[in-house]
Amino acid sequence: MKNILLTLGLIAVIGASGFNVLAADAAPPKPSLEDRVTDLEAYVTNGSRQTNAPTALATSPGPGHNAWQMASAALVLFMTLPGLALFYGGLVRRKNVLSVLAQCLGITGLVTILWWICGYSITFHAGKPWFGGLQWSFLNGVDSTPNTDYGGWVSHNVFSMYQLMFAIITPALIVGAIAERMKFSAILVFVTLWMFVVYFPLAHMIWGVDGLMNGVFNAAAKIKAIDFAGGTVVHMSSGWSALILCLILGKRLGFGKEPMPPHNLVLCMVGTGMLWVGWYGFNAGSAVAADVVAANAFTTTTLATAVASFAWPMAEWILKGKPSVLGFCSGAVAGLVVITPACGFVTAGGAVIIGIAAGLVPFFFCFKVKGWFGYDDALDTFGVHAIGGTMGAFLTGVLARNVANPNLATNLKDYVKDTAFQPLVLEQLKAIVLTLLLAVVGTTIIAFAVKAVMGLRPSEDVEASGLDVSEHGEEGYHSDAYSSGRPTLAAAAAITGPVHASAASARRPATI
Amino acid sequence: MEERIGILPAKARSHARYLCENRPQTTTNVNHLCAMKKIEAIVKPFKLEEIKDALSGVGIEGMTVTEVKGFGRQKGHTEIYRGSEYTVDFLPKLKLEIVLADADVDSAVQAIIKAAKTGKIGDGKVFVSSVDEAVRIRTEEKGEHAV
């Protein structure tokens, strides 16, 4: 009897534990056909995956959205290299053209390294509302699986690389204001500090999942602001910082006395075209999906840019007598800047209004206000990016409409009322003020610090002979007539050895 | 030049040499001793082909052309780049330099003027000066044989 009871008990225990083991190893619930179709529909419409049972799409990026994101990242890099490089390169004097290219190239490499080390983590990992955590340093944990906080169907690493391109072009915009008169070494040090003090925190606040100013996606945001592709993050930050830096740096030698016209408007126009095309990745790519929001952003970007590109030279024609190519180019860039924060939130009509404003207000600043104050903003970074970005952020508040973007209804029902002076406008103003303060105060401190430690300006000799030959040892344009092409003495000595020595001794004056 | 001075009467020789060396005071007679002249013509750039053809027509087959900038009575223009205005006084011109035998100077100058004239301000100017020596590098010929 005891044996039977023991045996039964043993069987019961084994059975129970066996059952537990079976339960622990149980496969996740099999998705039904309906579950799988739901997930496929979610992929197509950029919706959320169903939660009944994980399908094959549970950790997969959606190829359409991922492809558009990768293309957009390439387009935004194209905006810097060589779009901005040529746009700015053509506007400076011949002797400084390479310095602009070197600055764009240098910033690209530098910011990429910072992004990998901890920049991406600080900007996009949750942490504080104004500064992210370091858990994604060295891109740990950032793999090809989508991060549903930012883009449900885009690979996380692709999203990171996309945002890297924004981080690259933002400091590159600043070099426009201080062109032709800042040391390369000082620029690299300044940019490193600026990324940590201004860009990473600002981008975190506007776009981070727990960002202080992420009105669209952070229900707990203190400032319910919206910024689709970076009117505050990219343009206001770089534009206002550029103004401060150019004031601290001072004017170019000979400014106001020597003529300093653009040395190659052809390069400038080529760069403008590249900026415009690349900007589709900047704006429509910020939807982080190839969906209806991206489609709207694509449309508004086109309309605003083309209208602004037309308005600026028309204003020139009326006020100055001739429409200029530089006017077309500046108008296009201004239009792109102003539509940047608004593109995913406004309708086609709103985009046209923005285009007209973008063609006229920055025009006024470049033509009149700059002259009144007399500061040397060499390539009008302040006039176009700061003023354009600020105006864009404000107009986004005025012109955002629910019909343009269903995401506005998620957290901003009380702010976006589809009227001109909706509560959103006040939130935008708060974001504008905070951005302005961060950019201005941050840049002031950094600029003076770098100035104290290593100086900002090259010597007068270097500036007068041109940064290209002095800082980079190269000339942008050669004419064969004036170079000998002989190897240097050092190279010749390596080949001829003793001859060099005897020639040198022959030249030594005879001593008695 | 010595050959030609050599044929003069002795009294005239040193005087001729002096006059030839101090060119501004040279008279037409002594010009024959300095047998080559240089024409410098500043003209409007688009007239180059016409002038070249006109000079070929009178037998002049060589010249040197430089791109220059200058102004006389013709006014320049204003360029505006985003609010910065620049007045450009210097206008592009071409400078033609032709060294030729003295006997050919008049017909060459007339040919240039006829071809280059538009009647508007800015047509340019022609200068004629004397040349001491000319040498063809390939054959080392000197004097009029070299031009």
Summarize the structure.
The complex is a heterodimer of chains A (512) and B (147). With 512 residues, chain A is an all-alpha fold.
What is the structural class of chain A? mainly alpha
CATH architecture of the largest domain in chain B: 2-Layer Sandwich
**Order of secondary-structure elements of chain B:** HHHEHEEEEHE
CATH topology of the largest domain in chain B: Alpha-Beta Plaits
* Alpha-carbon distance between the two ends of chain B: 15 Å
Mean pLDDT of chain A: 92
Question: How many β-strand runs of chain B?
Answer: 6
Can you name the CATH architecture of chain A? Orthogonal Bundle
Mean of pLDDT of chain B: 85
Q: What global shape of chain A is seen?
A: globular
CATH top level label of the largest domain in chain B: Alpha Beta
Helix content of chain A: 55-70%
Q: Largest sheet of chain B, order of strands side by side?
A: 2-5-1-6
CA radius of gyration of chain B: 20 Å
Overview of this protein structure:
The complex is a heterodimer of chains A (512) and B (147). Chain A contains 18 helices and 2 strands. Chain A is mainly α and 512 residues long. In chain A, strands 1-2 form a two-stranded antiparallel ribbon. In chain B, the strands form 2 sheets. Chain B has a 4-stranded antiparallel sheet, covered by helices on one side. A two-stranded antiparallel ribbon of chain B has the order 3-4. Residues 25-32 of chain B have low confidence and may be disordered. Chains A and B meet through α10 and α11 of A and β3 of B.
Sequence-ordered SSE layout with sheet pairings:
The complex is a heterodimer of chains A (512) and B (147).
Chain A: H1 2-24, H2 33-45, H3 63-91, H4 97-124, E1 127-128, E2 131-132, H5 156-174, H6 184-207, H7 231-249, H8 265-283, H9 292-320, H10 325-339, H11 348-373, H12 381-399, H13 408-411, H14 423-454, H15 460-465, H16 467-471, H17 489-496, H18 498-507
Antiparallel strand pairs in A: 1-2
Chain B: H1 2-6, H2 10-21, H3 28-31, E1 36-43, H4 48-57, E2 64-70, E3 77-81, E4 84-88, E5 91-101, H5 105-116, E6 124-131
Antiparallel strand pairs in B: 1-5, 1-6, 2-5, 3-4
Helix pairs in contact in B: 4-5
